[in-house]
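Can anyone check this?
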Amino acid sequence: PQTSIREAARLMDEEDVGSLPVVEEGARLVGIVTDRDIAIRAVARGIEPEGTSVMDIASKDVYGVAPDDDLDDALEMMARAQVRRLPVVVRDNELVGMVAQADVARTSKEKDTGELVEAISRAPRGPRVAGGDDGGASERPPSDADRQREERPRD
């Protein structure tokens, strides 16, 4: 978590990835930082990248899956939360891997991949509000039942 923003960006470039898990005490996942976090939360706000910890801009409310979770459940979570990557964690949030939309796309049927990309990339519902961005994901992404309730005609 004490890694600088500049070092995180350098690692992303070196590894050709768009996000990095943020871990402490060995492998305990405490957040994720993305290239977008660096651009929006640091560069756009004029934050000094060398002396600022990556934890200052990382998303701390992170969705994750277990190694034995079903891939379809992971894909549904990606779509509902509109994220392209999910950490794979075991007991006490210990990071053991990452699953990415690109990984699924390389191994899935063309139709499934198209549907996944469409669902993940769908614009969020509701108004966009300036400010109030706490940097984390919501407690729970809207479920299909939530969406159906919202779309139901009012009496």
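Reply from J.R.: I decoded it. Helices lie at 5-15, 35-43, 71-81, 101-107, 110-121, 144-151.
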